[in-house]
Design brief:
alpha+beta; Phosphorylase Kinase, domain 1; Aminoglycoside 3'-phosphotransferase, Chain: A, domain 2; 2 domains; five-stranded antiparallel sheet; three-stranded antiparallel sheet; binds 5-S-methyl-5-thio-alpha-D-ribofuranose; binds magnesium ion
Length: about 400
């Protein structure tokens, strides 16, 4: 990678294989391996290289623009350096919950990592209505471990500020600032709105009180450097197997509000919850799965808050942040932020540029609109009432009540 942000895309399979061969001896390349381009994300190119014995590794390459938009939206290649550094940081605190980073090449803007192909994309698992025991608990523990150890409750003041400097991520934060906090709340040309939802969308675009709440959340996103957050923790960034999760794709990471990661996960569970209404199955089965999703959210919040507070109790060295009362207050702030950012994520996934498969798989617009309506109403509830809901049990009751009122 040169200083002018140019990099050459691997021209063919041979170039990808040469990259693997230069930086790892884990594959037997004496017989030509199979290279597949498996990236289904919006931003990068991802390849799986499998040798004749079935052993495989992953190569991820960043190019200086957004894959789904093209050269019209340039992006700094520093994001791949950030991704590599975050994977290293997360591996310290949640070693079994991230893919192992094997090599980072600034020159190729590419990383080589463990293949987690034995795990399934969580979004697909939720769409298939898989019930994975302990899922919420594992995600909550991952969030507590990674967020606590990169916050001022664990790091000393100098280390925290060095971390802040090293994860300045203006291009990726810039995307999020636009696609979360601007586009869905106005009639933006990038939006994609179901014509049958247009009436409701127009009401949102005209709602000044809602816009003020979103402005507050955006300002927090831009200014509150609480911890090194993943920054894009939707269910497509989590892979699952019975008893195991792997979190991938931390290229949007920066020092930001703890509630943003919590909120993004919460939102994506609730997007699936909303999608259930429009899916073709017996109501009993859909309700049962909705119940499972809410139970995972309960476990996620409870495990996150309990683990985070335990870590603070055991490991926090800052005498000025030692107040138990203050920590409880902070946890209430995290909870309110989680709700607010979840609302914004749900809104942008329903009205904005990057929709989710949970809703998009409902091809009939007149059926999908029922799910989309629930999604934006839940989003409004989460954004506007985030400061008044006392805890997870009250939140779950409100979600159920809102669904029943439709
Ligand atoms: C224009 S990029 C849209 C989204 O793709 C990524 O996965 C992030 O979620 C980003 O917001
Ligand atoms: Mg991603």
């Amino acid at each position: 990678m040169s200083t002018d942000n140019t990099v050459h895309k691997f021209v063919d399979d041979a170039a990808v294989i040469a990259f693997v061969s230069a930086h790892s001896d884990q594959l037997d390349l004496s017989v030509p391996p199979v290279v597949e381009e498996i990236g289904d994300g919006n931003i990068n190119f991802v390849y799986r290289v499998r040798d004749h014995r079935g052993k495989s590794l992953i190569v991820k390459q960043a190019l200086p623009y957004i894959r789904i938009i093209g050269e019209g939206w340039p992006l700094s290649l520093d994001r791949i350096r950030i991704e590599a550094d975050v994977l290293r940081s997360e591996a310290c605190w949640a070693p079994h919950q991230v893919p192992e980073l094997l090599y980072f090449s600034p020159a190729d803007a590419a990383i080589l990592m463990q293949d987690i192909g034995d795990h399934q994309n969580l979004r697909h698992a939720l769409i298939e209505r898989r019930e994975l025991p302990g899922l919420g608990l594992q995600i909550g523990d991952f969030l507590a471990a990674t967020l606590f150890h990169t916050s001022d409750l664990f790091l000393n003041s100098t280390a925290k500020k060095e971390q802040l400097a090293s994860f300045i991520n203006p291009d990726l934060c810039g995307i999020s600032e636009e696609v979360y906090f601007i586009d869905p709340f106005c009639d933006h040309e990038r939006n994609s709105v179901n014509p049958l939802l247009l009436q409701e969308a127009k009401q949102i675009w005209a709602d000044d009180a809602l816009r003020a709440e979103v402005a507050e959340l955006k300002y927090g996103f831009m200014n509150r450097t609480e911890a090194l957050i993943h920054g894009d923790l939707h269910t497509g960034s989590i892979f699952v197997r019975d008893g195991s999760i792997k979190v991938i794709d931390p290229e949007f990471a920066f020092c930001g509000p703890v509630g943003f990661d919590l909120g993004t996960v919460l939102a994506n569970f609730l997007l699936n919850f909303s999608a259930q209404l429009g899916l073709p199955s017996e109501m009993e089965e859909k309700n049962r799965y909705q119940h499972y999703l809410l139970q995972q959210l309960r476990e996620l919040w409870n495990s996150f808050s309990q683990s985070f507070l335990e870590l603070a109790e055991q490991k926090s060295a800052d005498a000025g942040l030692a107040s138990v009362q203050w920590r409880a207050r902070k946890m209430a702030d995290f909870f309110a932020d989680m709700l607010g950012y979840a609302g914004v994520e749900m809104m942008r996934r329903t009205l904005g540029i990057a929709h989710v498969a949970d809703l998009e798989q409902i091809t009939d617009e007149s059926v999908r609109v029922v799910s989309e309506r629930l999604s934006i109403r839940l989003a409004c509830l989460l954004i506007t009432r985030r400061g008044e809901l006392s805890g997870i049990e009250e939140l779950l009751k409100e979600i159920q009540a809102l669904q029943q009122s439709l």
